[in-house]
Amino acid sequence: MPTGAEAAVDWVRAAAYRIATDAPEADGTFAWDATTLVVVQTGGGGAVGLGYTYADACLTSLIDDTLAKVVLGRDPDDIAGAWEAMQRQVRNLGRSGLAACAISAIDTALWDLKAQRRETSLASLLGRRRDEVPVYGSGGFTTYSDAELGDQVSAWVERDGCRWVKIKVGSHPQDDPHRVAVAKAAIGDHGLFVDANGAFSAREALAFAGVCREAQVRWFEEPVTSDDPDGLRLVREGAPDGMDVTAGEYIFALDDARRLLAADCVDVLQADVSRCGGVTGFLEVAALCEAHHIDLSGHCAPALHRHVACAAHRLRHLEWFHDHVRIEQRFFDGAPAPRDGTIAPDLDRFGHGLTFKAKDAEPFRVAGGL
Fold first, then answer.
1. What sign does the dihedral 220-224-230-234 (CA atoms) show?
2. What CA–CA distance (Å, rounded) separates 39 from 17?
3. Which of 5, 85, 164, 235 can bridge 70 by disulfide, Cβ–Cβ 3.0-4.6 Å?
4. What is the pTM (predicted TM-score) of this model?
5. Burial 334-365 (b: 16+ CB within 10 A, else e)
């Protein structure tokens, strides 16, 4: 394995791809018809690392023009140093949002590069606490008909073996109890989760939870905005027995996680490796959850989470999100498929085991280049 100057990170490249959804989609606060994938590759020491995030195409210029300059020339093993340098580089831009997503993609690429150079899997490099991770099916968009909703959630249970499924609520609150009943009828005794994406007030969320008591909803995600920890705590305190209140997909920095945990407003904390600072940030959030005796759940991007999830403290499950599953299975060789409701790292593949199909994705490229 090359060391010293021979091992320096000598290039960083980014490209963005806009991929249409397979049908119109919406949740409680947003509607969309495409998803933008931002891919980062880093090279050094004779190997190539891969990372990505789901964000906006403008990240390519942020990565190429602002962040790459503090990564280039570093020892590929100096991931902590690169992470700190990137945090300082965006001080005047703000660490959250787009900057955090860009840093996440680069950090993940650097961890992949490190494992590639050692010819080992990322899960083995990080140290495995578990060999596989449960996933829950996620989609159930508010644009779906009853038939589409029932078909999707039943497929996660029957085809993929998922123990839980999650649907969106909040676009049309008057329809939500019916949609919950449709989903519950389709999955039987399996666990039902709902996600309002912050659409409700605390009182509205508690009223909805009460109406749906018979469906035994086990997970109520962002019943109110995660910017309102007092409202989240009110819902948590008034929710029916057996219903976990959760939030955290918009954790961009460790302080975001600390605030939610300090407010005692969630039963399970979420974090997203493609937003929270990459592998480095995700493991920091996991350590914070361990210190607070709170479980952690991985948000979206299941192929990217698979290895780090095996290393994280108190990891309960990962989100098998419809949009990201479509993209990852289409454009990444080595993307996982559930088996009995779990996904597992392929320890025979180096790094996180993913290879980007750049030629297949080229027709969808909207910015940058690899």
1. negative
2. 8
3. 85
4. 0.96
5. bbbebeebbbbbbbebbbbbbebeeeebeebb
Amino acid in the structure at residue 305: H
Q: What is the DSSP string of 231-288?
A: HHHHHHHHSPTTPEEEE-TT--SHHHHHHHHHTT--SEEEE-TTTTTHHHHHHHHHHH
Cβ contacts of residue 214 below 8 Å, gap of 6+? none
Query: What is the CATH T-level fold of the domain 124-350, as seen in this structure?
Result: TIM Barrel (3.20.20)
Determine the Cα–Cα distance for residues 38 and 366; give it in Å rounded to an integer: 10
pLDDT at 2: 54
39 backbone dihedrals φ, ψ, rounded to 5°: -105, 135
Q: Which residues share a beta bridge with 16?
A: 38, 367
Residue 285 CA to residue 183 CA, distance in Å, equals 32
C-alpha distances out from residue 316 to 95, 236, 295, Å: 27, 19, 6
Q: Which residues of the chain register pLDDT less than 50?
A: 4-5
Backbone dihedral angles phi then psi of residue 8, each to the nearest 5 degrees: -65, 145
Determine the topology of domain 4-121+356-368 in CATH. Enolase-like; domain 1 (3.30.390)
pLDDT at 6: 64
Q: How many CB atoms lie within 10 A of CB 230?
A: 10
Query: Which pairing describes strands 244-247 and 217-221: parallel, antiparallel, or unpaired?
Result: parallel
End-to-end, the C-alpha distance of the chain in Å comes to 25
What pLDDT does 7 receive?
Answer: 83
* Phi, then psi, of 251 in degrees rounded to 5: -75, 115
Q: Tell me which residue of 348, 290, 292 sits closest to 315, measured CA to CA.
A: 290
Q: Which of 255, 231, 283 is nearest to 107 (CA)?
A: 283
pLDDT for position 78:
96
- Tell me if 216 sits within 8 A of 183, measured CB to CB: no
* Segments making up each domain of the chain, as ranges: 4-121+356-368, 124-350
Q: What pLDDT score was predicted for residue 212?
A: 87
Burial state string for 306-331 with b = 16 or more CB within 10 A and e = fewer than 16 = bbbbbbbbbbbbbbbbbbbbebbeeb
4-121+356-368 shares its CATH topology with 124-350 = no
